[in-house]
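JOB MANIFEST
job_type = single_chain_structure
chain_count = 1
residues = 189
[input]
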Amino acid sequence: MTKEGKLIIFSAPSGAGKTTIVQHLLTKIPELEFSISATTRKARGDEKDGKDYYFITKEEFLHLIAKKHFVEFEEVYSGTFYGTLRTEIERIWELGKTVIFDIDVEGGLHLKRKYGKSALAIFVQPPSLEVLKERLTGRGTDSEEKLQERFAKAEKELNYAPRFDIILKNHDLQTACVEAEQLVGNFIA
């Protein structure tokens, strides 16, 4: 039986800065270990299997759902699944570390409901929807159709912010990173 530990959940619409903040925290707080999500999407750029994501087929993913191997999963975009394997959380707790997530909003809320007081759920809020759109467009990684899908999803996700323990405003990335360090440090202390 694995000893239960703590979880830190960072959620936000795509482009709000959550990944950058989580990467910052991983360099600053050695007690944290990143939870690698499973996904059915293809690797982008220099992403590596087992480091950035566990890249698996849709068939494999559905099989793991049927076997109840996920603590949470979502069909984030049509035909594209993301999820957290129970073994991933157990692996990190076995190391005596706190699990940190960079996860979509609905997945983040699901984890918070499941783990309650053992989890700190932080919503990273962009300065505005306009700034978010500029950031996503500026990445240059998505087609116009994909961008429209992301914008629509972001608008919906911003409404979930009040359901999180903390709303971290990301008007200035450096300030948001420092605030995140304090929040996480206090929670795991």
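[summary]
The chain has a mean pLDDT of 92.
The radius of gyration is 16 Å.
exit_status = 0
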